[in-house]
Design brief:
Layout lengths: L3 H19 L4 H12 L3 H18 L2 H11 L5 H18 L1 H18 L4 H15 L7 H5 L8 H4 L11 H20 L12 H5 L15 H6 L2 H22 L5 H16 L2 H18 L1 H9 L15 H34 L6
Length: about 350
């Protein structure tokens, strides 16, 4: 598969050709339009990146990690494990796709530490349920964008309210049916115990990489300021006051800006210090350069800018683990294909096509 920046450039070239051929624009006029709109996507690209990074910050918060561990202790059988993984991943991704796509595989890992279940299938279930829930997700790009004042199509379509999109019955029913179908499908694909790929709990534990913050017992004044809870929760209090004010004055009006602000303040509160949250953000940003943030910026902004692409591709451990999860998921996809081929042969045999 070509790199995302190459795909972006190919689409750009195709748009230029169509602009000249179909819109009766000269080549220089088309380039002028491209340049003029080039910088309009700066805010949108940053909004998308913040959804990913604030989601990463939420997923890695100590309180969220502890909650995941407690919930992961509930299922006792492989079928229950797959069901719980899919549900938690779907709910998290409904709240924020950045949160869900990070938390889902981490939660699957916590489940696999406690239940002997086919690990590739578990990871695939987490990702599949997350994607299914995105249909009506609170941060799904198009509906939230067109409900954000000043969006790039506002002059053509005005603002489109969320009651017409993600809170409408079509979106909600589609998401519910999608998640339900994913859970059913992965329960049907559960392999026998002797065929399951089991990853040992001690091996999974090695993947854990909590954010480490130096202690403050012998810290300097500057270090104590970095970890000051007074500064942290003063900021949280001010941000929370604005969020309450927003909903009182605007009603339940969600857009990219207020959603990112909510996730930012919530993440800061859960991490408990500006320094801890900043370090988590830095880890997420470095890893996202390799894993997701740069592709997001490329797709929505069309260039690599000053991100230093090509000089350093070292991801943080958390995103190396995601790459591992994606590779393991391919085993589950292969198993799905085998099931579908078997189902096709069975249906052909029953219809007489393949009967002796």
């Amino acid at each position: 598969m070509p790199d995302t920046v190459i795909l972006t450039l190919l689409l750009t070239f195709a748009t230029v050709i169509m602009g000249v051929a179909l819109a009766e624009q000269t080549l220089m006029q088309t380039v002028e339009h491209w340049y003029g709109g080039f910088w309009d996507f700066l805010a949108f690209a940053m909004q998308m990146t913040l959804i990913l990074l604030t989601g990463f910050g939420l997923a890695m918060a100590p309180a969220v990690q502890r909650a995941m561990a407690r919930i992961a202790a509930i299922p006792k059988t492989p079928l229950a494990a797959v069901t719980m993984t899919a549900l938690v991943s779907a709910i998290a991704c409904w709240v924020s796709w950045g949160f869900g796509l990070v938390l889902g595989p981490i939660f699957a890992r916590e489940i696999a530490k406690r239940v002997e279940v086919d690990y590739p299938l578990l990871i695939a279930a987490a990702y599949s349920a997350a994607i299914a829930a995105l249909t009506a997700g609170l941060t799904i790009t198009a509906p939230i964008t067109v409900n954000t004042p000043g969006h790039f199509l506002e002059s053509q379509i005005s603002l489109v309210t969320l009651s017409e999109t993600i809170f409408g019955p079509t979106f909600l029913i589609t998401a519910f049916l999608g998640v339900t179908l994913v859970i059913w499908a992965f329960r049907q694909m559960m392999p026998d115990a002797d065929e399951a790929i089991i990853v040992k709990a001690e091996d999974l534990a090695k993947m854990d990489a909590p954010v480490e913050i130096a202690g403050t017992e012998s810290a300097t004044f500057a270090q104590r300021l970095n970890h000051s809870r007074i500064i942290t929760y003063t900021l949280v209090l001010g941000g929370s006051a604005w969020i309450v004010h927003w909903f009182i004055t605007q009603g339940f009006d969600l857009n990219l800006n207020i959603l990112n602000f909510i996730f930012l303040i919530l993440g800061l509160a859960l991490h408990g210090s500006v320094q801890r949250y900043s370090q988590c953000f830095a880890n997420g940003a470095l890893g996202c350069r390799y894993y997701s943030a740069v592709p997001v910026l490329r797709r929505h902004h069309g260039h690599d800018g000053g991100l230093g692409h090509g000089r350093d591709h070292r991801p943080v451990d958390g995103f190396r683990r995601h790459a591992l999860h994606l590779r393991l998921s391919s085993h589950a996809v292969s198993r799905l294909r085998q099931h579908l081929r078997a189902l096709r042969r069975w249906s052909m045999g029953n219809s007489g096509t393949g009967a002796d």
